[in-house]
Structure formats: C-alpha cells, structure tokens
Amino acid sequence: MAKLKTKQTEASVAEFLEGVDDPRKREDAREVMALMKDVTRKRPKMWGTSIVGFGSYHYRYQSGQEGDWPVTGFSPRKQYLTVYIMPGFTRYASLMKKLGKYKTGKSCLYLKNLDNVDRKVLHRLVARSVADMKKMYECT
Asked: How far apart are CA 56 and CA 71, in angstroms?
C-alpha cells in the first residue's frame, strides 16, 4: 500500500506565501488564510510543500489506507487557488448556487480569484464544512 506523502511539517507558512509569484494569488491566499483562521480558531500549518492546512483528522478507508489530513486548507496553485472542502460539495448545493464562479473536484474548490466569488458565502461554506468534519471525525 502506498504511503501518504503529504504530511504536516514545521515549514513556515509565511515564507511559503511570500514565495507565491503572482501578487494577486498571494493576496487571495492571505485572505483565505485569515478566513480559515477565523473559522477554525487554529494556526495554519504547512502540509507537504504546497498546502496550508488548519486542524487535522485521522481517516481510515475500507481498503485499509489511513492517514492524517487537514480539516480544511488551501493551496495557491499556478492556475487556481484550491480550497479544500473535505466533505465534498453535495451537501452544500444551496451555498454553491450563490458562491459565484468556480470549478470543483471531489473535495477541491478551484477559484481563479476571490473577486469571482461571494466572500460571505465562501466563509459560510468553509464554516459548514468544518462543522461537518467535526461531526464525522475527531478533529484536533
């Protein structure tokens, strides 16, 4: 079974964000970080080399694979600012209709920039997903 490569590190979140080339993406990442700090009341931590995460939970799949992952987080990727909504999106359909312009993966919300979304709706989405994660898992 493959080992999970993305783990929490002691790397500096501030240094990581300073290294984001695109000034707009860097500012959006800082804004999302402030939003997540407000929602989780946790300090941001680096997970691997490119994910800023808040809190953590332990998961175990029926396949036997298990690991730890942030309760929520984000990554300022080249093309999109990726926001991790760990429960997925099906339970948040009403919020997603109001959010604005975005794309999704299974648990990834892809944003070109924050001006394309309603920030209050984004805050509610992150807050609801964190609350749901706390109901489903023992989160730290």
From this structure: 5
Tokens representing residue 67 in the block: 């690991």
Asked if the structure places residue 21 within a domain, the reply is yes
Tens of pLDDT, residue by residue over 17-43, are: 999 999 999 999 999 999 999 999 999
Query: Which residues, including other chains, have CB under 8 Å from residue 128's CB and lie 6 or more apart?
Result: 92, 95
**119 contact partners, CB below 8 Å, separation of at least 6:** 31, 35
How far apart (Å, rounded) are the C-alpha atoms in residues 15 and 95? Answer: 33
Give the residue numbers spanning the domain of 102: 13-133
Provide the terminal-to-terminal Cα distance of the chain, rounded to the nearest Å: 26
Given a contact cutoff of 8 angstroms between Cβ atoms, the answer to whether 121 and 98 are in contact is: yes
